[in-house]
Design goal:
By secondary structure, the protein is mainly alpha-helical. The chain has a domain of about 80 residues. About 85% of the residues lie in helices and about 0% in strands. The chain is built from three helices and no strands. The radius of gyration is 50 Å and the shape is rod-shaped. The termini are far apart.
Length: about 120
């Protein structure tokens, strides 16, 4: 057991000052920890809100991509149909042969029955 006479007032005062300093530092650390905790909570909420917004945007983009894919498929089908129709249409060589035949036949000189009847009536 320590006797009261053995305790030095100066040491008690130093120890008391040290404890007050430590108490003050502890309060500052607690306040800083509280501020950091509040900031983390705020950041967490903003991140969650941002994630929700991005998730919604991502859903919209996925739908738009699906719509674009469907439009591309429609365009591809239309192009294939045009290609098939072109394959079934007259080829250049066939057109040239037809043109030569038309030039040989000279259809501009053909007359209709009506024109023949008119010529006969007029004469």
């Amino acid at each position: 057991m320590i006797m009261a006479s053995e305790i030095d007032k100066k040491e008690v005062m130093e120890l008391s000052g040290y404890l007050k300093t430590m108490s003050f530092r502890l309060q500052i650390l607690q306040k800083t920890a509280s501020n950091i905790s509040t900031e983390i909570d705020s950041l967490t909420k903003r991140i969650i809100d941002k994630k929700a917004g991005l998730s919604k945007d991502f859903s919209v983009i996925k739908k738009e991509v699906a719509d674009i894919r469907e439009e591309i498929r429609f365009i591809q089908r239309a192009i294939l149909e045009v290609i098939n129709q072109l394959k079934r249409s007259v080829k250049i060589e066939e057109f040239e042969r037809f043109k030569k035949r038309m030039d040989v036949w000279n259809p501009e000189s053909f007359v209709s029955k009506r024109e023949v009847k008119k010529v006969l009536r007029d004469n």
